[in-house]
Recover the amino acids of this structure.
């Protein structure tokens, strides 16, 4: 298997109404407003957890390492009937890098009550490391960020794992702290 090979999913759902809405929300996620102050909340979809490229209205490409997760999603009986075509493809390097880069802008769970954008949290923690302002909570945050980064690197489909190399350079100061 070529490391930069993509698995392409082309689908046509054969149902309408609220089930169709639920399908797309479970696939892509969605945001909604809550309360009188209209705070924005989000509900993640399966594609928020994996790098992907949207190639068309109902055509998605993912790294081979993520294909099984998506196959399981599409094979769920509640999404039937669905017409699904799955095939291998090689995508341009810049598009695969774009998909990986978008993943560092995803929200991660920092604590039960707090989410953060991965790249923002990496940069914030790097500053804290430089300023030596490290308490127990900060060290735990560093560990969470490192776990998220390592999980993301498992799905790197860039040429020569270029994305992982760049991410490693960013998180190296954090690794030294977490032990």
């Amino acid at each position: 298997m070529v490391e930069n090979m993509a698995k392409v999913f082309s689908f046509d759902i054969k149902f309408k109404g609220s089930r169709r809405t639920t399908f797309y929300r479970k696939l892509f996620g969605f945001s909604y407003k809550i309360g009188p102050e209209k705070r924005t909340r989000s509900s993640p979809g399966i594609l928020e957890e994996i790098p992907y490229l949207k190639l068309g209205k109902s055509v998605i490409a993912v790294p081979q390492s993520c294909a099984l997760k998506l196959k399981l999603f599409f094979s769920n009986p509640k999404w039937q009937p669905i017409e699904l075509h799955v095939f291998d493809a090689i995508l341009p390097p810049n598009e695969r890098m774009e998909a990986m880069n978008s993943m560092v802008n995803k929200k991660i769970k920092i604590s039960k009550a707090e989410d953060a954008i991965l790249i923002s949290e990496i940069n914030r923690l790097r500053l804290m490391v430089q300023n030596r302002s490290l308490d127990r909570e900060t060290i735990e945050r560093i560990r969470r960020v490192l776990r998220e980064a390592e999980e993301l690197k498992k799905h790197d489909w860039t040429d020569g794992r270029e994305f992982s190399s760049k991410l490693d350079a960013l998180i190296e100061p954090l690794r030294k702290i977490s032990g």
User: Anything to note?
Assistant: Helices lie at 18-28, 67-75, 93-103, 118-130, 136-153, 162-178.
